[in-house]
Amino acid sequence: MTAPVDAVERTVRDEFARVVATLARVTGDVGLAEDATQEAVVRALQVWPRDGVPEQPRAWLTTVARRCAIDRIRRESQREGKEAEAVWLLDPDPTPPPESVVRDDVLRLVFTCCHPALSAQAQVALSLRTLGGLTTAEVARALLISEATAAKRLTRAKQKIADAHIPYRVPSDVELPARLKGVLATVYLIFNEGYAPSAGDCVVRQDLVDEALRLGRLLHDLMPDEPGVIGLLALMLLLDCRRTTRVAPDGTALRLVDQNRGAWDARMAAEGVTLVAEGVRRTPTLPDPYVVQAAIAGCHALAPSYQETDWDAIISWYDVLLLVSDTPAARLGRASAIAERDGPAAGLAAVLAVEGLDHHAWWHGSRAELLHRLGRDQEARAARDEADRLGLNTPALRSLDASLSRPASP
Amino acid sequence: MPQYAALIWSTDLEPSDPAFAAMMPRYDAFTHEAEAVIRGGAALYNNATATTVRVQGGKGGDVVTTDGPYADTKEALTGFFLVEAADLDEAVTWASKIPAAWDGSGCVEVRPVLDVG
Fold first, then answer.
1. CB-facing half-sphere around the CA of A87: CA atoms within 13 A
2. Tally of structural domains, chain B
């Protein structure tokens, strides 16, 4: 029985983190676990398309990876003239660990890959590689860096995990909230780089968005009761449900008002809204910032048209957001909502009141749009040029230029 | 059990500075609290006492000394502790209790000790 290569690759990717996590527990060495798993994956990609995917792919991969790990430890110890310490790895018991053990292992791996002693860049690369199962070449493509740079970044991170003894452990209850925040930030960073790339000509990089969603689902599977995990998954679903409508055929970014809502993915939106409700229910007094941002995205998803958007509700949610996480970006979002509800003059006043964003291209972009709507075209041009100078990416700039060339309609 | 060096980067104080004496009880309290894990350490004289040494032309060549520390940074290397910890998290927990990490005088750099034995 043969298997299509696509299906094989998907299975391998889905199981990657679980196999690494099991091996990391057995060997106590995340780097070794990952190298051994990669070796097993290479064999699977050779054998499975020909012979079919085994009934228990994870057990197959784990067994092969375990053997590869033993080989590696033996080679290493021969080279160093030491006794092999891996004898205990030669567990003849082929029973794969039960699902609950595997889940705990993966959870530990999540916290190792997103350990605050690693740089954000390293956490992103490791998450994509180890948790997402991307190859080094795929990590390089995802992060728009060379394969050599990606390899170096991953090697350094794994070296630090080993040398500095970064633990393979779920943080204690006391540490958990702060550590979980770091994990969520890493996944959201990956999502944002896909949803609104900071560089390049693409409006959206769906491959990265899909990776972030897979990681979000993994976290939700591991920690279904954590409001932040629920909120982040909801937020990503509610933003990405617009996936097919955000880019015009000519490659320009389409603003919310110009998107075809009928083509939004209703299933993703429904799943997101359900999660928001759950997230709010779990933290009624002090909602998690991701839940609140998801609620705002949910208001858009539920509005039948742009004109029928409930701006009062959106502004109220922004007020909640400022309460739990007061950032310039949140203030700018609130100011844009004010502009929609109360008109461009009120919106501009609100945008100008946001401090700390004058080095930020998006702030000048918002300013340009509102100045144009107020008929102050000369100032609008200047703001547009400032946004360009500060590196507004090409699709967003084209979209801004398109609205500046339309007649002002306050 | 792994060992970590906790390098203390903090305000460069002369031992005669009243601030130095004021700081001592904080460090005494820490060394008392961390007694079980401290494997070594020292407080260092200020930057002005440092001499940087290089030998020109390889081993046995001319010894060139310069006055002052190797790195002239705002915060000076003022001391270090050697602590034993199960992993980085535990080492960081101990490092965070060193006064320089919390009293506004600087920060603590944690480095795993390389076992060359």
1. 4
2. 1
